[in-house]
Automatic annotation (TrEMBL):
Name assigned to this protein: Protein kinase domain-containing protein
Phylogenetic lineage: Eukaryota, Fungi, Dikarya, Ascomycota, Pezizomycotina
A molecular function (GO) term: ATP binding
Entry-linked PROSITE patterns: PROTEIN_KINASE_DOM
Residues annotated as domain Protein kinase: 13-287
Gene3D superfamilies reported for this sequence: Transferase(Phosphotransferase) domain 1
SUPFAM superfamilies: Protein kinase-like (PK-like)
Pfam families: Pkinase (PF00069)
Highest taxon in the source lineage: Eukaryota
Length: 287
């Protein structure tokens, strides 16, 4: 997604707005960063599909929402690009691309000419290519247009999809309605068992610990962790989808995933649902 360069940013740094280059009809040349062993006389473009619509997600700091993130926009886009590329690369050999996330077709660099004091140089802009997903985000849809049963089915698909990401060592960390795409009916009914895609991995983390260097065997890498723990009401994750949920969350969760209770261990419970979340806490107020 691209955003207009904010006037606040321009005023703060005393610069004028650059022209917006990402318009219909413009042609770009990008250098590939796909890490593959190519045969002689075979270019990266030979591996791109010709029967599939692709989306170029461009990480240009000059077209980033500086109002939303009050920090260095260059650091912001570098963070998003690095994390998203690492996530798609890590998941590329799994069965998730094309099922719960879009298929990924590599990362690239655009070179834009820049004139500074009559000297022409270039600046690098990163981009990735992913599969175009025909549909709309939960944020764009109106929950009132769907039955409760459909909304329950949809929430189960969201939970199951995020669980698969977690099992494959990815924490999304930005699972909001805007990042859940619901496929068009024609596509979902014809060939898709999920009906959704999770997108936008700019805040994702590889591994189960908050930081990769803290990852240890106690986090049980590769072991499925019960949804009864990770989606327990105490974590309040369901509140991001409150507009879509008009039923008691915890009782529904227990009903749908109660069969997983037998797989719980004491270690899992203490790690993924610590007592501090579920036990009442005493509050002392000084008079």
């Amino acid at each position: 997604m691209t955003y207009p360069l904010s006037d606040d940013y321009c005023t703060r740094f005393g610069v004028s707005k650059p022209d917006h280059p990402y318009v219909t009809g413009n042609t770009f040349i990008a250098r590939s960063h796909i890490l593959l062993q190519f045969r002689d006389k075979v270019t990266p473009s030979d591996f791109l599909p010709t029967d599939l619509n692709l989306v170029a997600k461009i990480y240009d700091p000059l077209n980033f929402s500086h109002i939303q993130d009050d920090m260095d926009p260059f650091l912001c886009v570098d963070r998003d690009y690095s994390r998203e590329t690492a996530t798609y690369t890590a998941l590329s050999k799994s069965n998730l691309p094309g099922t719960v996330i879009p298929r990924y077709f590599g990362s690239y660099t655009l070179q834009w000419p820049v004139t500074m004091s009559e000297t022409v140089t270039t600046r690098s802009v990163r981009l990735i290519l992913i599969e175009y997903v025909p549909g709309a985000s939960l944020q764009q849809l109106n929950p009132a247009d769907f039955s409760q049963q459909y909304r329950k089915t949809l929430m189960k698909a969201v939970i199951d999809a995020k669980t698969l990401l977690y099992t494959h060592g990815v924490q999304h960390r930005d699972l909001h309605p805007r990042n859940i795409l619901v496929l068009n009916d024609t596509v979902a009914k014809a060939s898709d068992a999920w009906g959704i895609r999770i997108v936008d991995f700019g805040h994702s983390v590889l591994g189960r610990a908050p930081f990769l260097e803290l990852e240890g065997p106690e986090h049980l890498p590769g072991v499925p962790i019960s949804l009864l723990l990770r989606w327990h009401k105490a974590w309040r994750r369901f509140e991001f989808f409150s507009d879509w949920i008009d039923w008691d969350w915890q009782s529904w969760l227990e009903c749908v995933y109660g069969h997983m209770r037998a797989s719980l261990t004491e270690h899992m419970v203490s790690t993924w649902l610590p007592a501090i979340l579920t036990e009442p806490r005493e509050v002392f107020i000084e008079e």
